[in-house]
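Notes from the 1:1 (GR / supervisor)

We went over the backlog. Supervisor wanted to see one worked example end to end before approving the batch request, so GR pasted a single chain during the call. The sequence is below; no edits were made to it. Supervisor asked that the structure be written out right there so they could see what the output format looks like.
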Amino acid sequence: MTDPSRTKRLAGVDIGTLTCRLLIADVLPGGRLREVRSERRILRLGEGVDQTKQLSGIVMDRVLQCFKEWREMIAASSVDATAVVATSAVRDAENREQFLDRVKREADFEVELISGEEEARRTMLGIRSGLPIGVTEVLALDIGGGSTEFILDRPDQNSVVRSIDIGVVRLCERLLHHDPPTDEELHQAREWIARETKTAIDGMGNYQAATFVGTAGTVTSLAAMAQQLPTYEPARIHNYMLHLDTIQDLEQMLLSHKKTDRAGLPGLEKGREEVIAAGAIIIRTIMETLGMSAVLVSDLGLREGVLLDLAMRTR
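Structure output shown during the call:
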């Protein structure tokens, strides 16, 4: 008979448009997570999906190879339960069932294809698990590869979620065709982001009173670059206050470099050099549109939320 007081070990996989993430963690009393093992790989599952509405066979092969390795890690870690979720790229792909069938058959992962609203709910679970004491009302920003979510979350109220179909991969593929982008491409990008942001927050309520929190790779990468970290240090990224003027400076620096010249910049994760400028454009434009002067960086997000949700469902 299983001891109900025993620490539960869970595994979660977040299949993103740009990055796939694995987290294996023990669930401690009070719902806190103690990391056992984590990995993230920039696999670009959503490459070309904006134009073709298809996940390419080559990219699927690349992702499946990673998942087979992760399946072995999960098996070796003696986990009690596993949750695997897929987001924007898989939602948008017309051949999603082919991909999900392959993941089940070849990696033995049962994938839950979650809506933008459910993605936001679990992301907020992750964010809330690591906020500084005293932060109650939150406007969270989650910049992904295919979409960006705004989540206004206040105690004792239903969250307000808005999603826009602008992410770092989609922006690169749709508008930023030159390296570095031309002035006209930048103008079109900023206009598109500002227009979609205004539509998203229309009628959202008093978001100005909430603490503005950013999660996912763009924001954490910019925080690492702002501090010129030679290696990624979660403790120095998490709850770092990233100011708009710093983001503006980083954006200008990134746009003055070609993609290949961005590789090796202090704090920039390998493989993100192609999309980091797009990410900087997105967050800068959103912050200017919202009138935000700083963003609190969260190193916790959907991956942690997937595990916390699984812990609640298997309690």
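Supervisor's comment: The mean pLDDT is 92.
Batch request approved.
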